[in-house]
Amino acid sequence: MREGRFFEKRGEALVCRLCPRHCVLKEGETGFCGVRANRGGTGVSLNYGSLSAVHIDPMEKKPLYHFKPGKEILSLGSYGCNLTCLHCQNHYIAQDRKNFTFADGNGIITPAMILEKLDRTLAGVAYTYNEPVVWFEYVKECAELVSGKGYANVMVTNGYIEAEPLEELFPHIHAFSVDLKGYSGEFYRLVSQAKLTPVKETLERIVRSGRHLEVEYLVIPGMNDEREPFEEIMGWYAQTLGPRVPLHINRYFPQNRMERPATPVETLLRLHEIARTYLDYVYIGNADVAEGRDTLCPSCGEVLIERAGYRSLVRLGDPVCPRCGATCDILF
Ligand code: SF4
User: Probe ligand 1: pick from 5, 15, 19, max atoms within 8 Å of CB?
Assistant: First the structure.
């Protein structure tokens, strides 16, 4: 446990302004995320230094296809989330509070201990598995330390964060993988008990910051797969974020409290075809199909990166197409 940031006093209570929920916490209460609390009148981060997972993953698993392709990254998870998605695949560390294990004293895994786990075969550190926003203090501290030693930081997030803390992360987080969970406020309300607008604002802020961004869109049958609203949000995406921000259209499988059947492959192919008319890089994930697997030059169609599962065969050394010379938006 550590003192947390972005708590404001309101009478006898504290308001947490880290994420758009703005939980009002009386003495002894814990916020919606289950990991930020009012303890004795002080706002605290209960999960500081409490890791639920430390793995080495391929960058492609984040999924980031245009950021250090073919590299591996040390991936950290903690506990808690500020959304409650019915289909959360990591609900046991994100939502199920009975599983939350908070370290204190010697049990805390410090950022310095994370740095010791890194070597030059790894790109750096990814904050992932549960929601890194609700782990803000640790993520920022660790990211500062790691980037100071020349490593990269990656944040895999739902994008539900206020502007001020997000701005504080920009100097140290080099790439963001953000979930755009649906195309409507109704979807966010029903499925995640959240709002769409703050997520769109986060996406816009990341683009303005110049940091690398890729977007994930998990397709749930009958929930976020209708042509017209999908076209509408693709229009917004292309115009506001730009056509060169990669989009990952992912297949859903029944998880947690969502029992709908898995997304039909035809639905993924249909949305991929629509998105391709707006964007230069559209991928299909969690499905064994050839479409949306490799990275193609947006200008001449040359295969730049060939993929099999999470493995990448990178066919270029610079972000320039070897056939036509077009710029290809890949950060090595
Ligand atoms: S970070 Fe947690 S405590 Fe703070 S507003 Fe969001 S859900 Fe509430």
Answer: 19
